UniProtKB/TrEMBL annotation:
GO terms for biological process: phosphorelay signal transduction system; regulation of DNA-templated transcription. This is Response regulator. PANTHER family: TRANSCRIPTIONAL REGULATORY PROTEIN NARL-RELATED (PTHR43214:SF24), TWO-COMPONENT RESPONSE REGULATOR (PTHR43214). SMART domains: HTH_LUXR, REC. Pfam families: GerE, Response_reg. The keyword Chloroplast does not apply.
Length: 223
């Protein structure tokens, strides 16, 4: 089955452009378009896309609020889509707020069409993705944030020593292959560790693992 996508943007031309780019690729089907956050939430529950490509700035309920709403499904449903945020601005507050709301990816609107297509595929597969400039800003902001209260320590305590090592490597931006080489273990073993880390910490993907590692003080800027 292909990847079902919903595109949400208040500008009709932009919305149609992204829809056309995505629909032109094999394995991706745009099942709907929304002009604001409220419509995005309604259509997402109605059409159940795998990925929602969501603009940050929209009238009424904005993209961040809509993303947060999609992370808490109605009692009658357990449906939670992946969200790829798109914006003209790589402003720190937007990046951080979007990720905290549950977004799995963040790209600027000036990204190349093939980059948007690749991002949708990556996110649909269960991984997180950020544009390079956004990644730098995010790490700078999160790294400068004081560690979370001790209440988060019990979540870290549930990790084995090896899982902590892998989490540190993830937070430093390394791929599974690079982690395997650094820790002298098989790449498949790294994948298993990553899956267990995300499950134990209740995190959606590697992007949120990076945020968690910095917020809890497990990794600090310059270390």
């Amino acid at each position: 089955m292909g990847i079902r996508v919903l595109v949400a943007d208040d500008q009709a031309m932009v919305r149609a452009g992204f829809a056309a780019v995505l629909d032109a690729h094999d394995g991706i089907e745009v099942v709907g378009q929304a002009a604001d956050g409220d419509e995005a939430v309604r259509l997402a529950h109605e059409l159940r896309p795998d990925v929602v490509v969501m603009d940050v700035r929209m009238p009424g309920r904005n993209g961040i609020e809509a993303t947060a709403a999609l992370q808490t499904p109605p009692r009658s449903s357990d449906y939670v889509p992946k969200v790829l945020m798109l914006t003209t601005f790589d402003i720190d507050d937007y990046v951080y707020a979007a990720l905290r709301a549950g977004a799995s990816g963040f790209l600027l609107k000036d990204a190349l069409p093939e980059d948007v297509v690749a991002a949708v595929r990556v996110i649909a597969a269960g991984d997180g993705l950020l544009a390079p400039s956004v990644t730098r800003r995010l790490i700078e902001q999160v790294a400068a944030t004081p560690p979370a209260p001790v209440v988060e320590e019990h979540r870290l305590a549930g990790l084995t020593e090896r899982e902590r090592e892998v989490l540190v490597q993830i937070a430093q931006g390394r791929t599974n292959h690079e982690i395997a080489e650094a820790l002298f273990i098989a790449e498949q073993t790294v994948k298993s560790h990553v899956s267990r880390i995300l499950a134990k910490l209740g995190l959606r993907d590697r992007v949120h693992a990076v945020v968690f590692a910095y917020e809890t003080g497990l990794v600090r800027a310059g270390r």
